[in-house]
Write a structure and sequence with these properties.
alpha+beta; Uridine Diphospho-n-acetylenolpyruvylglucosamine Reductase, domain 2; Uridine Diphospho-n-acetylenolpyruvylglucosamine Reductase, domain 3; Uridine Diphospho-n-acetylenolpyruvylglucosamine Reductase, domain 1; five-stranded antiparallel beta sheet; four-stranded mixed beta sheet; 7 helices; globular; binds flavin-adenine dinucleotide
Length: 300
């Protein structure tokens, strides 16, 4: 692996570089060992950066808000690229589409819709993290998914070329998009419908209130740990298998919503994985169903 070219490139572009950066500072779970190198580029540096990483055979991953990931205690080899400095958002002239960079917070995009009487994203109210992360995982709730508002996505391919993809090209499925390994969502155009701002605001407020009453939103979590099984909510299966309140170390199955594991203090990735195993076994024993993780597990 050749880091010299990378170092020179970051200096020449003024890209912020942090070495041995604790990932626990960048995840909603507050878990994760150090990333060898953390980079915070702006949009204009991305294509060349990817080419340099490929040329130096340096492994990399991209992170948005860190709200859907579980990072190993041993940390992450290579480079972690953060999208937080790529965060502009603008309405088009006809005020029917939004152009959002990947690092822009999803809730900021939703707020802009609310202020401008644009409907389509209300069901995504309260989902933390970035727009790019929401697209990569086709985030959704209340019957609304990110794919429903995607007109096009600018995707940086592992060879440094940028492609404009339609929603169909993105191969969206339940909590996933089919993008090539190593590709990075740079920005997206979101297509919305005009509606009464007051009505949109009311729907958003209702969805947020419902989430607050049914999810441990103020606790350190990464949202739902497991995917739903066909039409049955994973949380319901876990609840009925008696998983609420189970814990390993400081990681606990929330008493409010069984599919949320919360870090009550100094929980580790190892604790989290052990609890996932225990809960998965209980559900399998009771229902014969093997739960699939929804959170992305990464690191050494
Ligand atoms: C309290 C709470 C409630 C939640 N509620 C919901 C919910 O209702 N519905 C739901 O779907 N999720 C929910 N989540 C999970 C999470 O917030 C969403 O999945 C969110 O969209 C993840 O965005 P992020 O930017 O944090 O992604 P990250 O966690 O940073 O990354 C997630 C994955 O996306 C990839 N990724 C991120 N950015 C890019 C990019 N620009 N290009 C390519 N790949 C990228 C990462 O490599 C990683 O594999 C919740 C989480 C919490 C903590």
């Amino acid at each position: 692996m050749n880091y010299e070219l990378l170092r020179e490139f970051c200096i020449s572009r003024g890209i912020e570089v942090r070495l041995d950066e604790p990932m626990s500072m960048h995840t909603s779970l507050r878990i994760g060992g150090p990333a060898d190198i953390a980079l915070f580029p702006d949009e204009s540096s991305f294509p060349e950066l990817i080419r340099i990483l490929a040329a130096g055979r340096i492994p990399y991953i991209v992170i948005g808000g860190g709200t859907n990931i579980l990072v190993k205690d041993q940390g992450i080899d290579g480079v972690v690229i953060f999208t937080s400095k790529m965060n502009s958002i603008a309405l088009n002239a006809q005020r029917s589409t939004l152009n959002a960079e990947a690092g822009c917070s999803l809730q900021k995009a939703l707020n802009l819709c609310v202020e401008n009487g644009l409907s389509g994203m209300e069901g995504l109210a309260g989902i933390p993290g970035s727009t790019g992360g929401a697209i990569a995982g086709n985030a959704g709730s209340f019957g609304c998914e990110m794919k429903d508002v995607i007109k096009s996505v600018n995707l940086l391919m592992p060879d440094g070329m940028i492609k404009e993809l339609s929603a169909d090209d993105m191969g969206f499925q339940y909590r996933s998009a089919k993008i090539p390994f190593g590709s990075i969502i740079l920005s997206a155009v979101l297509l919305l419908k005009k509606d009464e701002p007051f009505e949109i605001k009311k729907r958003v407020a209702n969805f947020i209130n419902e989430k607050k009453s049914k999810q441990p939103v103020s606790k350190a979590s990464a949202g739902c740990v497991f995917k739903n099984h066909k039409d049955t909510a994973a949380g319901k299966l876990m609840d009925e298998a008696g998983c609420k309140g189970m814990r390993v170390g400081d990681i606990e199955v929330s008493a409010v919503h069984a599919n949320f594991f919360v870090n009550t203090g100094n929980g580790t990735c190892d604790d989290f994985l052990r609890l996932m195993d225990m809960v998965g076994s209980k559900v399998k024993e009771k229902f014969g169903i093997i739960l699939e993780p929804e959170i992305r597990i990464m690191g050494k």
